[in-house]
Amino acid sequence: MDTVLVQLIAFGIIAALANVLGGLVIFPSAIHEGYKRSLKYLLALGAGFMLAVTFFEIVPKTILLWQKTHPETADNLYLPMLLLLAGYLLTQFFEHTIAPHFHLGEEVHSHELITTRSAYSGVGGLLIHTFFDGVSIAAASQIDSRIGLLVFVAVFLHKFPEGFTIGSMIVAAGKGRREVLIATSLIGAATLIGVIVFYVIGTQFNSLVAYALPLASGVTLYVAASDLIPEVNHHGGKRPLVSLSVFAGVALFFGIHFLVHELVGG
Hints:
Elements lengths: L2 H22 L7 H38 L8 H19 L19 H28 L1 H13 L1 H14 L4 H28 L4 H28 L3 H24 L3
Helix pairs in contact: 1-4, 1-5, 1-6, 1-7, 2-5, 2-8, 2-9, 3-4, 3-8, 4-5, 4-6, 4-7, 4-8, 6-7, 8-9
């Protein structure tokens, strides 16, 4: 089997497991309270990392790739920027129009019951986002395996809050551990499917990455700027360490960026 495919499948499985574990920690356990206290810091760390990887890796590579694959329109970036905006608005539509109860990282307490339909619409809304998480990893890896690794880390950092959110919504709809496991497994599987689908199609049509990457980067930008940052601001309150964790996420990006680009060559 192709080593690139093996690596991508490993990335997809790890991300999917993070979704499942994030959902299961809502049930009483030794780590439940500790995770709840640390969740706001994980949200902030993930937001900073995702913003940095979007602006320093994905968007520049999108522009350079478009200019390389479309030399006749190298100065006209209308289409790739339109695709980026489409990815952003697509996420808004599915997460907060179809699923208005969805707030990434925010726990729905048991006394704040929601309907089963609302809970499962949240799952459905998140499936598009998580599918494009997988597309982002695979598309970035097709350009450069090091960029693929950075995008994977960005995706991984928000997978626990994602699972926690969906699990909380399922419990608030009156469901139990079994339903939480099914829901979080579905959103985790969507990421793995996104990885595999783009790898299969992308290897057949090399030019596809020039269109998929800006679309996926719009999704990534939405998750960081419109899902995570508002929740960081909401949870942070008067705690400056929460806001500082966003900057720590940016610093983490540059640290890993240095390791994979300088120490591993390139």
